[in-house]
Inverse folding.
């Protein structure tokens, strides 16, 4: 099917909206748009970061997911207590595959679930005593942890527990930082506010801890901010930066430690990958410590090259020379990957619906493989995300914010992309519809996808999914015969 | 009154950021922009307008300052 024109895309949006009651239609209309590269401001075509419509199926998370699952969870040498009933922590445990080095249960705790397991009596009488006891137990059982964060679940805010007071008291007792995070799930419209709250907690409780302490710095200290090491992403990124002659002093927060975070203000440049979840802390460090931050994109060789050059432009000529050497070193390898997979993937069309940075960042990687992204959308993006997306996307492509289950299905039915990239909740719907699907939240249990090493895996995975022989076997043989017979009869 | 942060973007123009609403935008005009007198009415690209008490220009950007909303865009 050829690409839709602007009018056709607009008509498609209207058609999909028809099933809604009038009020709902009006609301949803603002979240769906046809991309127009001439628009400077996303606000003119798309509304974002608004409360989801009651009654529709949304794919968003909550503030707790944004704080514990995204920002705090990957910090490996801290223990993150899911404070409240057991479910929130257990059902989100280790699902994001934030890889780390360490011995789980001894000096790293990434895949473990710590919870205060609230019961009825804790809701009635308050859970502060339980929290204090729990922290004491943790200290006894896991003495090598470096600190504790208390991630509040909804009931904590509702019953008004004073976790700050408990944290201050117990921090003194165990002599390690205990950080209260007020990330109750009901705050905000999506996980986005959870990121903000988590960033603010880091700012208030962690960042200044080592301001007075000496640190042996070099002029080439950088940090990786907003890389959660999904399937080893941050490691792939780190090797490139180290090849450039830079010293990575902190990883936020994939495979990161508390000490690294405390030392971040000593860096010369903050490299920001996931803008949506960590721009807050980057802005703060720019103001307080004068550390500039730079958004970079390590998906696909074209964007990686541009990002490497831009990173190098912050440093002296020796780094610039090494940057060029890195680019030259990987160029033939990347060309080999493209030569192998581009003929198998060229011209294929992709629809994306993910969160954070991916709806715009991965476009370059698909384009390097000769594929085209015909629709993209953010689960919890803000206006500034869409501002950055409009330029990346082709004209007359679809943009959808906080897309509902129905809309996404209808769009896919009509646009007929060759590949859909979205989350686990959408995966099986589309696979049953016979459309190749990649789960792009945690790289469908593969990865890394960042950086040069990741691109080779990315290309292989896309090929593996798209050109899988299973897609031609979806119709049962007896049904196929019927179809042929019907055709013959007709 | 709201806390805002003003920084320079890569192109050298002023960037406005309102943390409370996660609103980031370019400043198209600032009433006073000299080292001695800085601030006044600022106009945003999205059509909004804010007022900063005129003051000595900050030694370095980004700079957080209290601002009064004159005209919000939305």
């Amino acid at each position: 099917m050829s690409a839709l024109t602007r009018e056709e895309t607009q008509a498609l949006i209207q058609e999909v909206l028809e099933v809604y009651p009038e009020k709902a239609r009006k609301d949803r209309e603002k979240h769906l748009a046809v991309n127009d590269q001439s628009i400077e401001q996303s606000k003119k075509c798309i509304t974002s970061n608004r409360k989801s419509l009651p009654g529709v199926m949304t794919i968003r998370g909550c503030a707790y997911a944004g704080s514990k699952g995204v920002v705090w969870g990957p910090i490996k040498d801290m223990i993150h207590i899911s404070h409240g009933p057991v479910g929130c922590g257990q059902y989100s445990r280790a699902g994001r595959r934030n890889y780390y080095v360490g011995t789980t249960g001894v000096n790293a705790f990434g895949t473990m679930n710590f919870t205060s397991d609230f019961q009825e009596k804790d809701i009635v009488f308050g859970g502060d005593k339980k929290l204090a006891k729990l922290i004491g137990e943790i200290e006894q059982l896991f003495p090598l942890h470096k600190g504790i964060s208390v991630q509040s679940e909804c009931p904590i805010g509702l019953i008004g527990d004073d976790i700050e007071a408990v944290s201050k008291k117990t921090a003194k007792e165990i002599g390690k930082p205990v950080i209260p995070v007020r990330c109750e799930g009901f705050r905000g419209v999506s996980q986005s506010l959870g990121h903000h709250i988590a960033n603010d907690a880091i700012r208030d409780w962690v960042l200044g801890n080592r301001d007075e302490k000496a640190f042996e710095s070099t002029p080439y200290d950088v940090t990786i901010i907003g890389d959660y090491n999904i399937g080893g992403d941050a490691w792939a990124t780190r090797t490139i930066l180290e090849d450039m002659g830079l010293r990575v002093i902190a990883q936020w927060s994939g495979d990161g430690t508390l000490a690294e975070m405390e030392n971040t203000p000593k860096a010369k440049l903050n490299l920001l990958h996931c803008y949506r979840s960590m721009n807050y802390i980057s802005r703060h460090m720019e103001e307080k410590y004068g550390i500039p931050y730079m958004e970079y994109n390590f998906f696909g060789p074209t964007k990686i090259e541009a990002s490497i050059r831009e990173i190098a432009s912050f440093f002296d000529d020796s780094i610039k020379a090494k940057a060029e050497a890195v680019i030259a070193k990987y160029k033939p390898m990347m060309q080999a990957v493209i030569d192998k997979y581009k003929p198998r993937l060229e011209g294929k069309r992709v629809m994306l619906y993910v969160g954070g940075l991916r709806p715009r960042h991965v476009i370059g990687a698909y384009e390097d493989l000769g594929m085209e992204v015909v629709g993209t959308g953010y689960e919890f993006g803000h206006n500034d995300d869409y501002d950055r997306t409009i330029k990346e996307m082709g004209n007359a492509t679809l943009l959808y914010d906080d897309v509902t289950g129905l809309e996404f299905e209808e769009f896919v039915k009509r646009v007929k992309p060759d590949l859909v990239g979205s989350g686990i909740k959408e995966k099986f719907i589309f696979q049953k519809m016979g459309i190749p699907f990649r789960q792009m939240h945690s790289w469908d249990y593969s990865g890394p996808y960042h950086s040069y090493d990741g691109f080779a895996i990315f290309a292989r995975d896309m090929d593996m999914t798209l050109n899988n022989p299973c897609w031609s076997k979806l119709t049962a043989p007896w049904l196929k015969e019927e179809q042929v017979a019907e055709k013959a009869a007709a | 009154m709201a806390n805002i942060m003003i920084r320079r973007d890569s192109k050298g123009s002023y960037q406005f950021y309102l943390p409370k609403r996660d609103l980031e935008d370019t400043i198209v005009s600032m009433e006073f922009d000299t080292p001695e007198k800085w601030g006044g009415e600022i106009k945003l690209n999205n059509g909004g307008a804010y007022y900063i008490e005129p003051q000595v220009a900050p030694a370095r950007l980004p700079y957080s300052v209290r601002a009064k909303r004159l005209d919000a865009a939305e």
About this structure: Chain A touches chain B through 14 residues (CB under 8 Å). The radius of gyration of chain A is 24 Å. The longest strand of chain A covers residues 221-227. Chain A has a mean pLDDT of 93.
